Amino acid sequence: MFNLSLIQPAPPLESPIVVIYYEKNPASFGLKIGHLGFREIHRETTGFQEILIGETARYGRALFLDGVIQSSQADEAIYHDMLIHPVMAHTRNGRRILVAGAGEGASMRELLKHTTVKTIDAVEIDGGMIGAAKAHLPSWHQGAWDDSRVSVIEADIFDHLAKPSANNYDAIIIDLTDPIDDAGDFCADSLTFKPAFLDAAQAALAPGGCIVMQVGERLPGLKGVLANLRNRFKWVQPYSVFVPSFHSNWTFFMMSNEDRRHSAEAIHAKLTALEALGTPYFSCLAYQLAAEQADRFFQDISET
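-> structure tokens emitted (304 positions)
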């Protein structure tokens, strides 16, 4: 008779180790986001933030700052196309540009597609972010950091705007941190909404110039901010676009000291002409839809 005791149990099948990186999402966000198949590429803590760059299964390479995703290879073009090209269509000239929060370098990449651009002041407070982007995010910047038209300025944006030379910008791109507090709640007192900052940015505009500001997830608290901006600027246009890796509709405010509605036909022509740039997401229609859905969200705020 066969001795059953001689049968050795089969070793357990080895399960693949799936590394999950969880974003730092406070309870007030109401969700916990984990990135499967995460492989760390670079991590460092600077004097300003923790920088983490890694490969994710869903979105490819991604940048996280202080535990929250900022940009991903799969959809950063949506964000940067819509941050840059609408404002370049609405500004009168588009020669001298200021980028506040140069980060990954993708904003300069898109700006340099415009033949009108002569100079870009790329202001970034964190030199560690610049170094990490140059080394590990090549598809974002595509060499823009080394373009002769780009002046890299490692400084606080307030300090830069205080310089006498910080003026006559045809477009100002404000791509700073999201307006949320440490608990993840909307913060109407964020730096970019403060009167002193807005005064400095507004004073730095050239005649016919425009500002675009990323203002984070489209939340009800932005309605009060928009109302304040419309009391300050002659023209303000919100627009929103869904960014998959952000899991939300992301909102931008574009504004000018001049009423750009008077130039509607010329701006429409510029928006259409910019489609020749071959951008992966931006089109005249994409912008129009983004503006329409934001207008519906903010429709109880009358324009002045």
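Residues 21-72 form a domain with the Spermidine Synthase; Chain: A, domain 2 fold (CATH 2.30.140.10).
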